[in-house]
């Protein structure tokens, strides 16, 4: 039941003019799409990190010297924490939910704090801290730009 007389002629003229000139109208949700793509990439990374931590807990990787039971209590606690929270964050990130971003931000900040404040647990790698800071900054920029394209 499409009535061609009910169509907006000004919109049709604008579309035909844009097509004739070879110009494409800008996408209004470009930053939102970029944010969702970034969240999905971070979800895949979080799954890999979570599975890595679970492999450490279960003994799937590492030798006898690196067995979970032979590690210090702070290392065991941090590893179990990241094994659980990374996978929870991955689900939320893949679905692009607000709680997923919050859980992921918690994991990013937690890893940076552990590396900086407790270097005895995972070794205090400044490279890990820099990567976490880069991911956090990228998320904040994308979220800000996505929010700007949808004013309140």
Q: What is the compact description of this entry?
A:
With 152 residues, the protein is mainly alpha-helical. It contains 6 helices and no strands. The mean pLDDT is 86.
Task: Please tell me about this protein's structure.
- This protein is mainly α.
- It is built from six helices and no strands.
- The longest helix has 29 residues, at 30-58.
- The two termini are 35 Å apart.
- The mean pLDDT is 86.
**How large, in whole angstroms, is the Cα Rg?**
23 Å
Largest sheet: none
**CA-based shape:** elongated
Which sequence of SSEs, written as H and E, runs from N to C? HHHHHH
Number of discrete helical segments: 6
Task: Return residue spans where pLDDT drops below 50 for at least 5 consecutive residues.
Answer: none
| Average pLDDT reading | 86
Bin the strand percentage. Answer: under 5%
Question: Structural class of the secondary elements?
Answer: mainly alpha
Fraction of helical residues = over 70%
Secondary structure: number of strands: 0
Oligomer, anyone?
single chain
Give the CA-CA distance, first to last residue: 35 Å
Which properties best describe this structure?
6 helices; mainly alpha; 152 residues
